[in-house]
Input
Amino acid sequence: MNAVSPLDFINRELSWLEFNRRVLHQAIDQRTPILERVRFFSIFSSNLDEFFMKRVGGLKRQVMAAISSSGIEQTAPRTQLEDIRNAVLPLLARQADLFSKDLHQSLQSQGIFLLKWDELTPEEISFADDFFRKNLFPVLTPLAVDPGHPFPFISNLSTSFGVLMKDPNQNEKDLFARVKIPDIFPSWIRVKPGQGPNSFRLISLNDIIEKHLSLLFPGMEIQEAMRFRITRNADIERDEEDVEDLLEMIAEELRVRKFADVVRIEHGPNPSHKIMAILREELDFSESDIYALPIALECFSIQSLFFIEKPGLRYPPWIPVVPPEFGNLESNIFDLIRSGDILVHHPYESFTASVERLIQAASNDPNVIAIKMTMYRIGEDSPFIPFLIRAAEAGKQVVCLVELKARFDEEQNILIAQALEKAGVHVVYGIVGLKTHCKVALVIRKEANHVQSYVHIGTGNYHSGTARAYTDLGLFTAKDEYTEDVVHLFHYLTGRSVKWHFKKLFVAPIDMKESIFRMIEREISNQGEGKPAHIIAKMNNLEDAETCRMLYKASQKGVKIDLFVRGICCLRPGVPGLSENIKIISVVGRFLEHSRLCYFRNAAVNEVYVDFLLGSADWMNRNLHSRVEAVAPIEEPDAKRKCWEILQALEQDRRTAWQMKSDGSYTLVDSVGPDESATQTRLMKWTLKATSQVNNG
Output
């Protein structure tokens, strides 16, 4: 068996950039409806924002700390930053090229015109002038820098004008001012709102402001004006061991983040060298932090166009179906779950008619005595919050574990936690040093002469919005071994009890990694004995070094391994003597592939007898070691068949599937495949067919 070296791994950051390249391809692909292409174009940009805030920000901290190497392949942080820049620049050039040579014209062909100022008609100029006077002029705040006015604070991800101007009555040097572009308006403004539904003529907010800058500085002569955008470091987590109040620590962390170091500054073509020199002196960024974009900044901010109401320019609407097992909305949901395990697949099947229904029923049912939930990302208008508040006000014991460190949702989660506490909900913030990422809900109910528990274990957050946009799985069960495990899991989360031996669940960081490794070793043993052996795993990311080594070992022993990894993948497939039995596929489609599902053949003759697992954990170091995760086995034959159908749809994808090569790059499995062969299209059709068969049965 060949030894594994750091060279046998792909750098995490470069692998993520490859994923974002696949996202950008969705905007390039002519088979994608035009406004959906706009959406993917915008997702690519927002993904990069988060990447620079967290990943680039983290690497910069490592450089400052003089860390010599990091990452699964042990590369110097400074080298990683150089590699990232060399990878990002061509991607930005491709994105700019896409806008200039494709999207712009494609939008025009559908009656959506993104105009420059000199393309406006006199009537449209008059409209833009009026829009500035009535809407923008009162909101804008010009901030000049002089001895009495220090350089203004520039917030993260804000776009601004840097302005150089001169008082014609004085012989002073140029005066610098900053004008922030308000984010309360769309980036593109329709200049003829009453023109009709089939024609949309728009001008950028930036252009409107630039044409009226002189009105903000009356009596001054504007010498130069330049648009720029900054990104600040968001990787500023603190040591929880030294704080008494986790809520206050997170709130302080959010305040600090606003003033964190600049990790990127973007500007369009023909920048002002004078303004750049001022910004560089005041904001303290390096040359490598500057990203000179080949087109204007506003061309990268077209997300508002997605909401233009024109038929036929988006994917056909999808309305999640009610899962057949929950089809009778008048039935008692507890009776339905008690009659047998139920597996639901979102967004194909309704989150509202399953997960929300369970918690709503629990909040109203007088026999329910307790509700316990974990919440990672929640959403602003979550229905779960009023459900839990209602339950607490009715005298039920309600426990909600709110993860305050959910990336970029911290502020929202703080507000929700405070609202729940005020209503009498027992709110806890998890375990010091660990993020609580598991997706579990527990309902305890008095029934006849005993107390019965009901459990939901999922792969996705209790977030009604993402449940319509992400693919996720959820298991409902009332089986004693599952419910006992979840009861003890909550005791672990709230009381730090760790002595329970979980009967069904794999729980990180307690026993999940060891349990998965045992299952991989079993496949190796079966392969050696000539029994059927096969591993299939679907996840978001694969990065843990020890797990990669274990998969390499299984491949070297002859075990066939099919991995469906949407994003980061640090394992190299198809390397002779190392990983020739490993195939890696990434599916990027209409919905975000978010479900985690594992298949271990276990010498079984068909899919009913194989081992399936679902849960919250990716195979990343953070998920296996520094987060609380829960994975559960699937036992019911019908649920296993459903899981097998999902994996088969992924395997048969000839439209949205990308295969990874050993160098970390990806190629489309079939660049001309019909939409009907796409995983998600196929699963929508299968879901409709299955529901129809049940209803007609």
Notes: Residues 324-501 form a domain with the Endonuclease; Chain A fold (CATH 3.30.870.10). The chain has three domains: 6-307, 324-501, 507-696. The two ends are 54 Å apart (CA to CA). The first helix runs from residue 12 to 28.
